[in-house]
Amino acid sequence: MEKRFKKFLEEKFAPYGNFPSRTDVISELLSNMLDKFKDLKEEGSNNDEAYEATTKSFGDVEEIMEELPHSDRKPKEKPNLRHILKKAESDNKFSQIMLKGSDLADVDLSGSDFNNTELRETHFDRSNLTDSKFRGTDLRNASFIKTNLNRAVFAGSDSRGVCFKGANLTSATIIGADLSGTTFAGATLVGTDFSQSDLSQAKFDDLSLENVIFESSSLNKTSFKNATLHNVNFHHTAVKSAIFDKAKMDKVTYALLKGARANLDKVEII
Q: Of the residues 124, 173, 241, 262, which has the maximum number of CB atoms within 10 A of its CB?
């Protein structure tokens, strides 16, 4: 499979000839693609499925080449692919770029386009991501600690193991996302839409949820211990295994959950 990916990369860079850093660039990209392929295989994909998904996530060759030397002169030092990110950051367009494990903390990235981008294990701590888009993005184990995600969109993203501690998710849209095992401690949840998302074993303990939507979501063993729920939408959602111990909620939310047969024995109506 390594030969197959190397052939793919050689074909992508063929129009640019033997530029000085060609070997280093292809070697680094090949390593990233093999890592992604391995992860997809471990998740159950067969060889063809994993190969197709990996190649589809490949970035824009033109953007890479814009930041690399093209002459036959040997560069004084090994090229740093971080230069590629500078142009993307100035345009706020990161779509389809591999940024696995990147440090994007403490920066203003409002309005950025991260659609279909490899962002696994990337750190966005304390950054401003207002109005940013993460459609179809790989965000596994990414960190958004105290990040401003006001009106951000995470439609169809793989967000397993993401850390949203202290994040501002006001009016964020997180539809059809895999958020199983996600941490929301200290997050601001006002008008947040989690429709059709998998929130199995996610934790909303001690939080205040206002006008939050969980319509058609999976809440298997999801915890709302000591949380305060006001006007929260659980329509078409299985809540029997969700945990509401010592939670506080308004009468409408209580009635909706009771009708869905949630365990509300230790709930306080406010």
A: 124
